[in-house]
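Slide 14.
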Amino acid sequence: MKPQGENLMNFLNQSKKLAYIRVEDITPAADQPRKIFDDYELEKLKESIKQCGVIQPLSVKATQGGYRLIAGERRLRAAKMAGLKKVPCIVFTVADETAAVIGIVENLQRSDLTLFEQAEGIQKIITQYGITHLDAAERLGIAQSTLSNKLRILKLNPSQRERIVAANLTERHARALIRLPEEIRDSVLNRIIAEEMSVQKSEELIEDILNPHTLSDKPHPTRKSSIGDIRIFANSLNRLVATLANVGLEAKQQKREGKDYIEYRIRIKKQVLIEEEESPQLKIC
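Slide 15: predicted structure.
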């Protein structure tokens, strides 16, 4: 049975030893998950190694005539640049499949891989060794849903992946983008990058694109209620004027509608209301 979960960790603890190995005896792995090596970061790491040495050992697997690197190619390159002859290594005695898993796990824990390098590395393990998503998730120590989300972003093309990494966008940005039809992903990605959109803003933008009529199709309850209230009030004024006429009071109603308001004015003749010194007016704006 292949080691999984805690059993994998116990198995690895029993299958490794620490040794100092000549850098010339270590061969980088052909299936190295990390593809991008920043020259500036390598230079900084080289200077650090000159001062303090290689603090975090490399992970290697013994092969005929030497060792194959499992994880730590950036450290190996910087060590060579710093002129080191030997580097500390954890030597694993494991099958190639387990070695590939170790490489992905170490890089995931150290956050050394971009989101797409992580996804590509996981996909390579699944394809190369014919294991299920559940099996891969257990070996990597992550939930199956997390693994599936990481693999989904591989639907983006290489150009889109490069731009997402260069703009320091997140996995959630990438997952939101793949909801869109392929033909509009580039233009939407351009806008997200240009406007430096957060994950939330990006998701809102994409939701609006996918459901453009969601807001416009909804009734506007406030406006309808307002119009209904005005009509009721106008009818009440009409009845008031009619009531004044019925009791012998001469009253006139005027309506004036402006851009931002509707004005109603009721005028009652002064000679009728002897007690009033001025013509009373009712003005509603």
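Speaker note: The radius of gyration is 37 Å.
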